[in-house]
Specification:
The structure is a homodimer. Helix content of chain A is about 40%, strand content about 20%. Chain A has 15 helices and 17 strands. In chain A, strands 4-15-14-13-12-11-7-6-5 form a nine-stranded parallel β-sheet. The N and C termini of chain A lie far apart (about 50 Å). The longest helix of chain A has 27 residues. Chain A has about 375 residues and is of the alpha/beta class.
Chain lengths: ~375, ~375
């Protein structure tokens, strides 16, 4: 039930379709992050209006609350949250490393204490696979060991090799679940695909070794993990440029946790198909509107009487209805709808950028789009 | 530009149309409260989807932040918040009494300190009229002196008589503004109407005296103030039943700050046309969903796996898309969208109740609707 079709290529940039049990995703695609079964500050209706084709759900959060057993009894995550389109779930590993109040890694898995109530949990590759089978996402991720960007090459190598061993166990577990019922696990989406994750930090040799080990196991798609953890963009681009071409052309490639809009363009240029990032929604809640010409930091006094929309060239609901002055007022007054309106704009900007990228690839004009984008876009506040 | 047409009566219940410079309001009507130029947790688009025909804005809040001068320069409140339909503004008096950190009442007006920054302000009848002229609401309210429900009859009488003197000054000021430019005041809506407010607490004699004094001044419509301040519903119904029939049949009647859905039905039965209340949105943020059969207190463990929508008979977005189990999860997780989804439901319930009331009056079946409503509706948690 899971398929990837490569429709067109323009240089290394790829235009494709990911087909899942819950519908098709046009790639390159950006996935809004619905951490706890909800993208913060926007409703599912907003996401449909924005034409989001796929959501990301965080296994760590959903496992702790409301629990994958409860979600499985509700028929899976799609039914529970009322989202009929595709969902990708991560393995929970990243949050164990970034959120849990204690973690202890062994070959068996990651033992950790919940950041919510201190309760003790063990996340093994098998458990991460089972939880995601119960959630019933369309794409599940293998459990990997995340390392700090400051770790030396030996630590990165050890974690990469352990991740490969864990990936094999995740795959084995999923194959077992596909063969027939396993006591205690309700498979809510029999057509679920599983992606492997390439690790290896910023070291080309380790990345190549990880690609080979991951391809040897064999998955429906491949992710590039361990980036967007503090390294400079140029370094990330190099790692992606080194890694992506080594992945099978006929399978989807997913760059995890990236990034700013210019990162997306640069990584599409290097052959990536899928992205996710909390940046558009998190920055929105912090009052940063991402526009085609730079950031609108909405609390700034210069916007107090500005009648322009955040981005005069943007077609989102917020830009069609709200002035910067009104959005500043809402943000300063602490109105919840500030987060909603800003999130709608930022998500629209991301999703619209992906639409334009897809169109450019189809017309063979991706390189021109890329150049034009860099000429106007800025990560700095609007001048 | 302001008109009221009485279309139909069914007993004391009235079906009418309020015509304003920003369009028509079908009455009886409920006005969602957009305190600071935004109904909390819902966007203007949600309000249009919900078919809200008129919003209430709070003069006290808007005067303090972002300020009526700024809003006037933006072209008025409609332009500033991107709401093209009618708006009613209160006078600011109620918040001076309930929110300000200090207040000192003299014949001249109410001196108070901002609850935001402690700054000192003077709200006179003239100032309240000027602020609302700058906001450019379609219906402005006179400044009245609010008294505590525990005040004795002498205090209530004094405040009522002072309110009548203040009302005359508000009217005089508006007439002056209508005659031509006044330095320092930008009239952003020349068709603005002004409503007088009947005070007098729970004392029939004082209410009658207040009606006479207010009618003598003469306004485009009349409000009943000083209720929903802690008195039992039956007492409120009696005061409304005593007061409303004394008001002109060919002008709109507005009951301020009320109430629960059964209050609305009972006061329509006594001849009220317009209502406002923070209850549906405030209760929504506190996790209370108001349904045709009672409250759904969404945090309750009994809803943890409940696949039903909040109200199986309801047609709102939330009930069409979300289970109680999902809404409970969002509420407990502290997701902002819990407030949004709950507010959409509660506002829909209020607005839909008003729609059903209007239809029943047209068909002469209001009394039957009223009986049926009381048979099923409850203010207590759903059994």
């Amino acid at each position: 039930m899971f398929e990837f079709e490569l429709l067109h290529a323009d240089g290394a940039a790829r235009r494709g379709e990911v087909r899942t049990p819950h519908g098709v995703v046009q790639t390159p695609s950006f996935m809004p992050v619905g951490t706890r079964g909800a993208v913060k500050a926007v409703t599912q209706r907003d996401l449909v209006d924005l034409d989001a084709e796929i959501l990301l759900g965080n296994t760590y959060h959903l496992y702790l609350k409301p629990g994958d057993d409860l979600i499985a009894r509700a028929g899976g995550l799609h039914a529970f949250i009322g989202w009929e389109r595709p969902i990708l779930t991560d393995s929970g590993g990243y949050q164990v490393f970034s959120l849990a109040s204690m973690r202890h890694i062994t070959e068996r898995g990651a033992e950790f204490r919940s950041h919510l109530d201190g309760s003790l949990h063990m996340l093994t590759p098998e458990k991460a696979t089972d939880i995601q089978a119960q959630l019933g996402s369309d794409i599940a991720m293998v459990l990997d060991e995340c390392v700090a960007s400051t770790d030396g090459i030996d630590g990165v190598r050890d974690a990469m090799r352990r991740s490969a061993r864990w990936a094999a166990r995740c795959r084995e577990r999923l194959q077992r679940l596909r063969q027939g019922p396993v006591v205690g696990v309700t498979v809510t989406n029999p057509g679920q695909a599983q992606f492997g994750i390439v690790q290896g930090g910023i070291h080309p040799g380790l990345r190549t070794e990880s690609v080979q080990a991951t391809l040897e196991i064999g998955f429906e798609g491949y992710a590039i993990g361990g980036l967007s953890v503090g390294e400079p963009p140029a370094v990330m681009y190099d790692v992606v440029g080194h890694t992506a071409p080594q992945l099978p052309a006929d399978q989807p490639r997913y760059l995890m946790g990236t990034g700013m809009p210019d990162d997306l363009i640069e990584c599409v240029a290097r052959g990536v198909d899928l992205f996710d990032c909390v940046l558009p929604t998190r920055n929105a809640r912090n009052g940063q509107l991402i526009t085609s010409r730079g950031l609108v930091v909405i609390k700034n006094a210069r916007y107090a009487e500005d009648p322009l929309p955040p981005d005069p060239g943007c077609g989102c609901y917020t830009c069609r209805h709200c002035s910067r002055a009104y959005l500043r007022h809402l943000y300063i007054a602490g109105e919840m709808t500030a987060a909603t309106l800003n999130s709608i704009h930022n998500l629209y900007f991301y999703l619209d950028t992906m639409r334009r990228i897809r169109e450019a690839i189809m017309f063979g004009s991706f390189e021109r789009l890329r150049q034009e984008f860099h000429q106007t876009f800025s990560r700095r506040p609007l001048q």
